[in-house]
Structure prediction request, 509 residues.
Amino acid sequence: MYLPKLIPFGMLLFQEHDTNKSANDLVRRAPDAVPRGYIIEHCTVPGVVALTFDDGPYTFTNHVLDLLDQYNAKATFFINGDNWSRHIDRKSTPWPETLRRMVDSGHQIGSHTWSHADLTAADSATRRKEMFLLEKALIKVLGRYPTYFRPPYATCSPQCLAEVEQMGYHVINFDVDPKDYLHNQPWTVDEAMRRFSQAVDAGQPSSSFLVLSHDVQEQTAKTLTPFMLQKIHERGYRAVTVGECLGDPPENWYQFSSPWETGTYLNRRFANSNRRRIIVIEQPGLHGLWYNDMLFIQPIPPYLFSTAFWDYIYEADLDLAKTLAGFMRSYCLLIRHEADFRLATGPSLNLIPRLPDDSGSEPEITFERFVDFMAQVERLDDAHVSPRYAYGFIRLSKLNSLSFLFFGRFAYFQVHRQLSTYVASFMAPVVTLFVVLSSVLSCMQVALAAQSTTAVSLSPAFAVVSNTFAIVVSIVAAVGIGLVVLLVVWVEMRNLVIFSLSLFRRPIF
Ligand SMILES: [Zn+2]
Prediction:
């Protein structure tokens, strides 16, 4: 069987990085053309105007889109999820269609937080939530979420900057502010137009401008936007997106969610860390499994970066070689962006080793080198890795419940099962009900027994009620037990189907 040669792995890490060679699917983002960690206020490409519209989508947004089409102009929309408009991801609202139109027309969408929160004043948990909620909504509508972010109130403290950088965002402000939100009446919008003209008229042909405005303002949509577009046209500038005005190609404007589950890769798990935890383990068998809120990850052992090791293992033990190749491939799911890589190499996880070179010092594995390295692993298809790694992350309880079928063991890895926790959650009220019913039943039986042995006289109606009640309780009990059995069968069958399907499906990167 043909096996792609994995051997140059180790060598690759020490070679000079060749940018032309690193074009691959693993990381959809090119090496950062745009810096992170500080607030960007100016375009870098000459002769362009980047119009930006904040706080939408809203009623006037479609009119702004019409005008942009008319002038064949591109712009950037910094979106809120819950501000002037609400439920931007809900089908019953016009907003999903508006958002899709923006992307389809070649405009750029950026984040402006979920609810227009002041991220300088907010605490870390609020910052994460504000960014994450909008990401979730945009994933639902567009299948992706932005890498560009404009802080509400134009303020992002050093702590805020560090945190949004770790989430993978560029922070964008502006160098032209027409103050359209202050001059938003038909009789005051002239002032916003004057401020825009003043800035643009003072420019050279090689100048560029990053302009703030708000498509939620009626006068901005109806009066200021056509004025700005006409002015840009007259002065010979091009109206472009923020990404283009910074020389960043469109594939870098968004991050993509994994099809396996929202937030499969490392950085997302941290952004959402109140729900998911990475557990670093030294048990290869548990690598890539998750259980409740924990994802088990085995760090990459240093010898997997050794050329000699791969040479040896392919000769000595093909099965083991395929297992290790699969293990390495699973890291393609974990590390997809530079921010993931920084976390993986950081002191809290330390998933990727530093390697001693000939001089004994420890050279840095840069992100670019890691991408080159992993690009080879990613090309391995399922035939070249062990079946264990033919699927992405898998829930441990699913694997356990099917372990007997596939491995002939009662559990893949014994833990308290999530299903039992689930059953326990509704068993308490069911048991309580049965206790109450059987107590009542006992009382009735005692009363009936007493009637037959003493002179106490009970109404015939009571005897009828008692008998009926006994029958009803029996039926309820039978149905209840039957339902529990059906539930267990259904859950297990569903697991079997999901697990079987996952065996035939390649991880999609
Ligand atoms: Zn705003």
Notes: The chain has 17 helices and 14 strands. The chain has three domains: 9-15+263-392, 34-248, 418-503.
